[in-house]
Amino acid sequence: MNKPGLLSVLLFSLPLLAGCFTVTTVPVPRTQPEREALSLRGVVISDGTEEQVIEYDDVLDASWTPSSLSLVGINGSGNDITTETRLIPITELRGLLVRKLDAGSTSAIIGGIIVGTVASVAVWVTGRADEYRGGGSD
Q: Of 37, 54, 75, 137, which shows the fewest CB atoms inside 10 Å?
């Protein structure tokens, strides 16, 4: 019986863990280090009358100055990719869309992986136990 390698287990679990991230809205941080540490996915802006949510599939660059935020984001996939650059005054920012780890989903998936691993080992061990007693199947 071939044992699954560590690499195959990692390759199986990485897509599951990637699904544990969610995009949430957070307030605009006041300090530069807090702003730089964010994993931006978009912004919520307001011109005073209505709010607009601008979300990107990926943010290539986010540059902060004391008075503005410059974003370079992309949307789409394959041959249908659009790149957009925006300069947004800090006074118009109402929130930031950031990518965060969802603890509930992550715990459920990791728990399922652990339980599945323990169950697999238990089945494997009990199946081999018959061979050691001389009553195993050929």
A: 137
With beta carbons less than 8 A apart as the criterion, state whether 98 and 41 touch.
yes
pLDDT range class, residue 107, cuts 50, 70, 90: low
Whole-number Å distance between alpha carbons of 115 and 119 = 6
Q: Indicate the SS3 state at residue 47.
A: coil
pTM of the predicted model over 0.70: no
CA distances to 1, 15, 45, 54, 63 from 86, in Å: 57, 31, 12, 10, 11
Tell me how many degrees the CA angle 41-102-70 measures, rounded to the nearest 5: 15
How many residues are present in the chain?
A: 138
Beta strands in the chain (DSSP E): 21-26, 40-46, 51-55, 58-64, 68-77, 80-89, 93-101
Tens of pLDDT, residues 20-36: 677 777 888 887 777 77
Query: Which pairs count as long-range contacts for 9-13, CB under 8 Å and 24+ apart, including other chains?
Result: 13/113
User: Please, are residues 95 and 28 in contact by the beta-carbon 8 Å criterion?
Assistant: yes
Distance CA 68, CA 56 (A): 18
